[in-house]
Amino acid sequence: MDEVQIKAINLANGKNLPETPTLMFEFIGTEAYALEQAKIVQKIASKHNGSDFVFTEDPKAKKELWKIRKEALWACFAMVPSYEAMITDVCVPLSHLAELISESKKELAASSLICTVVAHAGDGNFHTLILFDPEKEEQRKEAERLNHLMVNAALAREGTCTGEHGVGTGKMKYLEKELGVEALRTMKRIKAALDPNNIMNPGKLIPPHICF
């Protein structure tokens, strides 16, 4: 989670967490193995100028930490309760994740909108929560512009326009660039074979201009 997301968490939950980019790890295995892995990660974090490494084995403390992460979206509305959130995500190979987040953060920070970053660092996927006033069309357009920049930056790094949230209608326009026309035609043929009456989630995923 980035520093803006941590600020939102502090506001929403009455916490006093350091408002800096924060990584959360969960170590699974025997007690000895988990402790060994925690020490390894602590050394790596220290080597890269990380700070405030906190490790807990207490079930209640662990539950509270993950509760903070899972409620990240709702925490954002503590900053601007009347706003809406455009929730977008992209995914790239792990080797490109740090570069992509750094580039995206520059664009997000330069924007007039409040934006937070929440990532799944282990699989190259990260989300951006872009907060905007639904009554102001220019803010909605700015949110869409930021989403567009993130998607194209991900595609330029061998990534995908969405890691978890799906294509739906909002990211359909990026699929031709990501997959190519022939791949989309193949997908459309499969859809037609399985759903000849086009009653299963029609109008999603495949751009309407793609023909057999």
TrEMBL record:
Keywords per UniProt: FAD, Flavoprotein, Oxidoreductase
Name of the top EC class for this enzyme: oxidoreductase
Pfam families: FAD-oxidase_C
One term under GO cellular component: mitochondrion
Family statement drawn from the similarity comment of this UniProt entry: Belongs to the FAD-binding oxidoreductase/transferase type 4 family.
SUPFAM superfamilies assigned to the protein according to its UniProt record, in alphabetical order: FAD-linked oxidases, C-terminal domain (SSF55103)
Key word Oxidoreductase present: yes
Domain FAD-binding oxidoreductase/transferase type 4 C-terminal: 1-205
Organism: Cannabis sativa (Hemp)
Cofactors, names only: FAD
Enzyme Commission number, as recorded: 1.1.2.4
Top-level taxon of the source organism: Eukaryota
Entry's Gene Ontology BP terms: lactate catabolic process
Name of this chain's protein: D-lactate dehydrogenase (cytochrome)
Molecular function in Gene Ontology: D-lactate dehydrogenase (cytochrome) activity; D-lactate dehydrogenase (NAD+) activity; flavin adenine dinucleotide binding
